[in-house]
Amino acid sequence: MTRYIVPVLAAIVAILETTWLSELSIFGTRPDLILIMLTFHAHNRGVQRGQIAGFVVGLVEDSLSASPFGFFGLVRMSQGAILGFTKGSVSGDAIFSPMILVTVAVVVRTIVTFVITALFSIDGLFDQVFSITTLIEVLLTLVCAPPIFFILRLFLRRIEGRSRGLS
Amino acid sequence: MKSSRKTAITTIVLVIVGLVMIGVSGTQTGFYPERIVRGVLSGGQRFFAAIGRTVSGTVRSVGELRQLREDYEGLLDELERYQRLEGNIAALTAENARLREQLGFVARSENPLLAARVIAKESGSLFSSFTINRGRRHGVRADQALIAFIGGREGLVGRVAEVSGGTAVIIPVFAPGSYVAARLERSRYEGLLQGTGDENDPLVMRYVPRRGRNEIRYDDLIATSGLQSMYPPDLPVGRVTRVTAPSYETSLRISVEPVVDFSRLEYVFVLINSGTGRTE
User: What would the pLDDT profile of B175-232 be if each residue is shown by its tens digit?
Assistant: First the structure.
């Protein structure tokens, strides 16, 4: 059960971003919290679970936004798949590791977004991918990555400890 | 090995499904799978939005309540200030009217007058004296006469007893030991007004011949005669309230009520040219 918690939380965050957090913005943008959570999940669970979780959460985002259905599904799936390869390979401090992992996720997101935009000729997205707003969003995401990783790690440890105690 | 093949197949399937969905949803509106997912999630969206509205509404209400309370307290303070101001304005208006009256009196008077304000009254009733805010610096000298103008009437107040640099102590006409040479204005009988210090019978006129009893009437005006060098003549002092002829005295005893209401005395005028010229 604990293996689904982070994706479920990410889906809830996706909904919250359309409701409670919709008014919250820094320099006109927000950190990509879903990207951080999916990166954490893929890094902990590997490629298979990472890509499935990314695809499902991406579809949730698609249904909540005006994007073509499957757009975020593919973007998040790619992130999950690539970051899944880092399972067990990147481990270190609590600050730089999350930032490095999130940087990789951002690069993957940018490339996949660019490819899908080009492949399906989606208007207006190309400029947004390489805009100042996106750069600020990336910086905010990088800053937010360590604390969110820390919180999720703490949360998972608690949940797993409790479920082990029950069994 | 089996696991990695499974992962690769999953990746390929997801990529294909994703690409197909993008392609299909790009060509038609209301893509069916999207409608299903959106339908499921819309409940969650409504739920969170309702909670958000409730929470933000409550927070906003608390903020508004706090603001209302601050506004209310601010308005109460302002109201209190305005009430105080209104009270001050009323007091100032009344004072202004009184001062105008006094000013008019000063302008009409033939004698040089020095306006003064009563700033203190003797706490005991032994001498019934009071203090004015004018003294030697302003030209006040001992034994100068003081008059007042209240309610359109002028009247003798008393005399200066003691003078300091900036203030002077006044002995009113009704004080014990105060004497004024006076005359009945209508019948022209002369006598001596004496202060008793008694609230009910503050002034008594003595040495008026008994023969004048039938000529003296209630409410007759009594003014200074000018025979005493301290007070100039024809300053109203009081009115007759009672005339008695005690058998043991050769003259009448006339009770007099001062024309000046000493209980409302605020401003007085020092007659600069009056007095005996005594210096302290």
Answer: 887 899 999 988 899 999 998 877 778 899 999 998 888 899 999 999 999 886 788 8
- Using an 8 Å CB-CB cutoff, list chain B residues near A70: 17-22, 25
Q: Is residue A39 pLDDT above 90, yes or no?
A: yes
Taking contacts as CB-CB distances below 8 angstroms, the residues of chain B near A20 are 48, 52
Separation CA B260–CA B150 (nearest Å): 7
pTM: 0.52
Mean pLDDT of the B243-256 span: 89
The answer, yes or no, to whether ipTM is higher than 0.90 is no
Q: Yes or no: say if B202 and B195 are a contact pair by the CB < 8 Å rule.
A: yes
Q: How many CA atoms lie within 13 A of A89 on its CB side?
A: 12
- DSSP annotation of B250 reads S
Closest partner CB to A74 (pick from B10, B15, B38): B15
The structure tokens listed for B240 are 């007759």
Q: 3-state DSSP call for residue B175?
A: coil
CA distance B150 to A75: 99
Q: How confident is the model over B22-39, as pLDDT tens digits?
A: 888 766 666 777 778 777
CB of A72 less than 8 A from some CB of B: no
For residue B45, list chain A residues with Cβ-Cβ distance below 8 A.
15, 18-19, 64
Residue of A nearest to B20 (CA): A70
The pair of three-digit structure tokens given for residue B7, joined into one six-digit string:
């992962």
Q: Which of residues 109-148 of A touch B (CB under 8 A)?
A: 116, 119-120, 122
Shortest Cα distance, chain A CAs vs residue B12, angstroms: 11
Q: Say whether pLDDT at A124 is over 70.
A: no
Contact B10/A at CB under 8 A: yes
Query: By three-state DSSP, how is residue B159 classified?
Result: strand
Which of B21, B29, B58 is best to mutate for the A interface (most A CBs within 10 A)?
A: B21
- What are the tens digits of pLDDT across the range B159-169? 998 888 888 88
Q: How many CB atoms lie within 10 A of CB A142?
A: 18
Q: Is any Cβ of chain A less than 8 angstroms from the Cβ of B57?
A: no
Contact call for A60 and B11, based on CB within 8 A: no
The H-or-E segment that residue A58 falls in is helix A47-64
Is residue B158 within 8 A of residue B170, CB to CB? The reply is yes
For the cut 70, the answer to whether the pLDDT of residue B260 exceeds it is: yes
Please, what is the average pLDDT of chain B? 84
Of the candidates B269, B279, B240, the residue with the CA atom closest to the CA atom of residue B257? B240
